[in-house]
Amino acid sequence: MKGLGTVVAAALVASPIVAHAQSAIELFTPETVAVAGDIRVIGVDGEPSWLDRGFGKTRFDTDAANRNFRIEPQAVEGDVIWTPRFSWSLGGTVVATAQQGQDHAVDLSEAFLTYKPLLGGGTKLAVRGGLFWPPVSLEHAGPEWRVRDTITPSAINSWIGDEVKVAGLEAQVTRPVGSGRLSATLAVFGLNDTAGTLLAFRGWALHDQKAVAFGLQPLPPLNAFFVPYVQATKTRPVIELDNRPGFYGKLDWAPTAWLDVQAFHYDNRGNPEAVTPTLQWGWRTRFDNLGAVLSFGDWRVKAQGMAGKTLMGFPENGRLWVDTSFRSGYVMATRNFAKGSVSVRGEAFGTTSIGSELGRAWSEKGWALTAAGRRDIGKNLSVLIEALHVDSRKDARASVGLSPDQDQTLVQFALRVHL
Predict the structure, then answer these.
(1) What pLDDT was estimated at residue 403?
(2) Nearest Cα residue to 239 out of 209, 268, 204, 201
(3) In terms of Cα–Cα distance, which of 402, 397, 289, 388 is closest to 347?
(4) Residues 95-127 pLDDT 10s
(5) Is the pLDDT of residue 298 over 80?
(6) pTM of the predicted model, to two decimals?
(7) What does the alpha-carbon distance between residue 290 and residue 265 come to, in Å, rounded to a whole number?
(8) Omega into 134 within 30° of 0, i.e. cis?
(9) Phi, psi of 16 (to 5 degrees)
(10) How confident is the model at residue 268 (pLDDT cuts 50, 70, 90)?
(11) Would you tell me which of 85, 87, 275, 356 could form a disulfide with 319, CB atoms 3.0–4.6 Å apart?
């Protein structure tokens, strides 16, 4: 993680820190330290989850011997959140996370500094440097990076959460335009060279398992070419392999209070031939994402669409070992109430594999439907219930004795606390 320290140090040097009054400094106070937790009761059927090194699309599954619907409690996640303020314009965010299924009992989720100087003429500048998720998701919010109105994010934002975490320097400029606003964001980053591994081998998934600084994510059973001498059976999302910085850019236009339109481009500029002794590979991954939020009365409609490509390995017969294109999109409608909300989301996803060693059998297509309700109990406690159904086809399932066509239903009841 040497590269992460370098990026954080660069962010400090780049920020013109001005001395402010002592009253602006808040380090360890009730306003800067918080804890959050998530416990659930889940009911699930279907094939083994990707977290159990299967091809399953959700976070939970039945045991291998009994595929019937099962119900059990789960302690899912706990977070300690520190948001110190060093001056009127300089702050920070550090989140330590304990989540079910991660390699270490506690790991680092985010750690970055934020600089927001006061500018004239209505212009706003926000700079952050450190470890964070790029601003792609329309569903996640808050320092613990959690979805609010559902339990499970869409396939697009599930993938951002489990594989697209960067260490970098990001700047955003916002200007009023008529009765609305226009924002432009640009960032350079590193430590995200393996992004694309999960999408190529596992495919899309719907879950709220998040990448952490020092953790690994499991891969499904791989073919004989990749195991055991080419690709590790787990991928590390936060790692630098080729010392080639990536970049992303975003435009966010809100012409009125009821419409927000966003366009995002990402390119990690990874070297697909870079590899470590532990068989972590560089992946050249690029994608474009379009999003929109429409608000009217108590209703809010969100939509996102993503398309991209990821490459890995050496040329063979005119193609790299892995050449996978991917696409996904969803629409979600939410009805807000005084103390909660009800949401419905529909989505479709797919990948196309044409690599010399990862061929058509690893392509997939599928769809999912989600219905969820949230009820706030005071300001520190929320109760959510969600039903998620996923249906997909992937021919590579036949290699482990499964039908290429699988469907899965997951019902969750969650209790969330934030103190």
Answers:
(1) 96
(2) 268
(3) 388
(4) 999 998 888 999 999 999 999 998 888 899 999
(5) yes
(6) 0.92
(7) 9
(8) no
(9) -75, 85
(10) very high
(11) 356
Q: Can you tell me whether residue 70 is helix, strand or coil?
A: strand
Q: Amino acid letter at 239?
A: I
**Average pLDDT rounded to a whole number, residues 378-401:** 96
pLDDT, one tens digit per residue, over 67-95 is: 678 889 999 999 999 999 999 999 999 99
Mean pLDDT of 345-360: 98
For every residue of 27-46, DSSP letters joined together read SSSTTTEEEEEEEEEEEE-S
Token pair for residue 54? 């299967």
Please provide the distance, in angstroms rounded to a whole number, between the alpha carbons at the two ends of the chain.
Answer: 31
Instruction: Look at the block and give the residue holding tokens 């302690």.
Output: 75
Alpha-carbon gap, residue 324 to 396, rounded angstroms = 14
236: which 2 tokens? 């590390």
Question: What integer is the mean pLDDT of 117-146?
Answer: 94
CA 226 distance to own-chain centroid: 26
The residue to which tokens 């086809």 are assigned: 393
C-alpha–C-alpha distance, residues 70 and 247, integer Å? 44
What DSSP string runs through 240-300?
-SS---EEEEEEEEEEETTEEEEEEEEE----TT-B-TT--B--EEEEEEEEEEEEETTEE
Element holding 10 (H helix, E strand): helix 2-14
- DSSP state letter for 62: -
Which residues lie closer than 8 Å to 400 by C-beta, 6 or more apart?
Answer: 54, 55, 221
Three-state DSSP class for residue 111: strand
Q: Which candidate, 4, 53, 2, places its Cα nearest to that of 235?
A: 53
**Domain 2-7+32-418 sits in CATH 2.40.160.10:** yes
Domain ranges of the chain: 2-7+32-418
| Residue recorded with tokens 């920020």 | 15
Amino acid letter for position 399: S
Q: How many CB atoms lie within 10 A of CB 390?
A: 25
Amino acid at 103: D
Cβ proximity of 170 and 186 under 8 Å = yes
Q: What is the pLDDT of residue 69?
A: 81
